[in-house]
Amino acid sequence: xxxEGPRVTERNGWLASIEANPxxxxxxxxxxxxxxxxxxxxxxxxxxxxxxxxxGSRVLDAGCGTGRVGGLLAxxxxxxxxxxxxxxLVAAAREDHPGxxxxxxxxxxxxxxxxxxxxGFDVVVCAGNVMTFLAPDTRREVLRRMRAHLRGAGxxxxxxxxxxxxxxxTFLADxxxxxxAPDVLLSTWDLRPFTPDADFLVAILRQA
Length: 208
Description:
CATH class: Alpha Beta
CATH architecture: 3-Layer(aba) Sandwich
CATH topology: Rossmann fold
């Protein structure tokens, strides 16, 4: 969810939320901490990613927010790096999920080798509707940079809902322009098939 970094665009939806309500980030943190304390199941995305990977794989949590997904994957035995534009959310990730490396950064300028993280990733996961918060003119660049951080047969996995200003067909066209092709398209994180009338898309993408 991806508020600060080398370059920020004024059209980023998350930034707009913070500009409209400076307490938005803390509200988001409190909301998910309360849900976790109440026993809500917040691990669906992480379970699916974990099932895709051998133990000890490398995972990049792109738009990591409070570390909800990456923290669970680290607890499952994977090496996790998380990046998010909002320093308040990244601070919460460091507090709630120590272990992974949580970084503040703009996904449209993602360059982890420049920060000393040279090894690529087996999965780049971008959950929590992060793709719909991106400035429209950065979407393809974000996808391209995700692809550039994969290694071998690594894959990019994104999930977001319909009606958020990013049509699924447009997303798939942007992915293709970034050098990514669909491996599997689903309508939920619990592996239900994607259909034309689906209101959610989980896209598992490989390097084309």
